[in-house]
Design goal:
Number of helices: 12
Strand content: 25-35%
Shape: globular
CATH superfamily of the largest domain: Glycosidases
CATH class of the largest domain: Alpha Beta
Largest sheet: 8 strands, antiparallel
CATH topology of the largest domain: TIM Barrel
Low-confidence stretches: 682-688
Strand order of the largest sheet: 4-5-6-7-21-18-17-15
Mean pLDDT: 96
Number of domains: 3
CATH architecture of the largest domain: Alpha-Beta Barrel
Length: about 700
Amino acid sequence: MKFLNGAWLVKQGYEVNYVSSVYSADIESDKLTLYCPLNQPIHSLGDTLNKGVLTIEVTSPHADVITTRLINYKRDRSHQPSFELNPSNTAVTIEETADDWRFTSGKLTLVVAKGDSLDFQYIREGKLVTRASLNSKAVVIDPSGQTFIVDQLDLAVGEKIYGLGERFTHFVRNGQSVDCWNLDGGSQSEQAYKNIPFYLSNKGYGLFVDTTGLVSFEIGTQNVSRVEFAVPEQEMTYSVISGNNLKGVIDNYTDLTGKPPKVPDWSLGLWLSTSMSPYFDQESILEMVDDMAAHDVPLSVVHIDSHWMKELEWCSFQWDEKKFPQPEKLLSELHQRGIKACVWINPYIAQKSPIFKEGARNGYFIKNTDGTIWQWDMWQPGMAIVDFTNPAATKWYQSKLRHLLEQGVDCFKTDFGERIPTEHVEYFNHADPALMHNYYTLLYNKAVYEVTAAVHGEENAVVFARSATVGSQKYPVHWGGDPTATYEAMADSLRAGLSLGMAGFGYWSHDIAGFEDRPVRPTPDLYKRWTQFGLLSSHSRYHGSNELKVPWRYGDEAVQVTSEFAKLKKRLAPYLSRMSQEAHETGVPVMRAMILEFPNDPTCEDIDTQYMLGDDLLVAPIFADDGFARFYVPDEEGNHTGDVWKNLLTGEEYKPGRWYEQKYDYHTLPLLVRPGADPLHVSRGSAS
């Protein structure tokens, strides 16, 4: 939210009331409450008149986490949506000296200065982590009369910011304005399906803004030396999270917001989609599966996309009997072949759907404020949206899925969940629609995940979701939306996946060879290179808007490459399963940005064209049709001379701390094994 005109002036129509200082404080056993006058300090009783005071409450929900709540006017928020946090019994110490107040949780201390100048310093083991100082905290009123609570933290020299969800823009967030607001904007813009108001800094801390509503970030934009975050509410709660390193910060953050579960091992194999083709039926799906086996491509999951239901009826949750006269037989035959079945769903119910009347009669849809059903024609004619704040609606929706699960469906692709209205609508629980917009996807995917776990067991529960918010990491897997069939989109997708992983999302996938295959279809070259990347991701799926992405459509060599890398992933299954367990225990993603794994190597701070697949494998996808890859081999702290990395596919050795540029055929790419590791057999440092 930009409200300044340069460094000195305020934009026309805006009112800005800065916190000037801390006037007084109350100290309880576990809370420090500060009373902060706006615009100018209080020096006399007369200064207390006609003046706003921002109340700031400091608490700690977890060791090494300090939470700040800024309150302008108190409101009853008991009926509003909120993230399910997991506070622990945290011992804090609060001290008052002649110069300041000190609030300590674990190894993190907030020092708040007394006097006429504002100064909040976060210090870990004697070292400054970040700071909020002059004109950092404010109550801002925009020209429409909307109140915003604003705060800012300093950007130190050389400090870089990462995260804020699955973002397709440049990996380092510095210089970007980011609105955390879920939108169905594709993968070529600054909009995002998965907005997470949590960022990481290379200085070793994180910042989490705890609201389900809009959060606007200005990262070195409004003030080039600060990160600003603002919410259109009367209060704002945020936490500064520290840790021993960046992984430790994610561990602490996911302790608070939820750990990803360990995913079923079968989900780690190759998924093949029917794409959005309307021509698939029961026989052709089995034929496709058998053709993959005939071409020696191991397959784990078949995804049956939207046309398993009749057109204009999405979602009916009823098989199109013309295409699928015996769905139980289809599912049984897939299982006999060792293949799991996933089907496409969303939370939208078309007016033509045979279940629309049932949902309307029972009040299961989001309503207009006049009590009628909210509907529009975007996506499906007369489409309504299931209201998951209504427990009966949730059970009704789950009952439709339970029937499919009992038929033999193994999991669901939970598409959409971003286009949720906020104007003139009402929920069953009367929650603020603006606070429900991002939160909706959490209720939606939770409902699907939980009914899947109830039928197939928690060890087999998985979804394939596009939208997400804070806590959605508890309901994996997530995939990266709708990229085009270009190398640029392939690189965009990788940046987005690495960014999402910074928020404790343990798993991530993408549409191999691109979703949007018109007007530009994937070339055989792109298909093979994206196949390498896709089968070296935590989860791997071929999918398209029109074109079936089976390898034989792209030539004999594409078949060979797909077979080789699908088999490689199968060989890596025990390693990936172990990384899944690590993600469950720590929140650290399977696919990791280089800075996350090597925070002490400055070269890794900006790299977004390669990644670590778990602890021990470096992957550098090839993003050009000339076959050249430019990649960096990290230099670990304390690395000894001779500790070289080796290419798992070629055996070639690479010294750390250097950039390399090499040309690769379609059967190879930079896939380097960390010194001392053997991901195909035993883990790094373990006994043989």
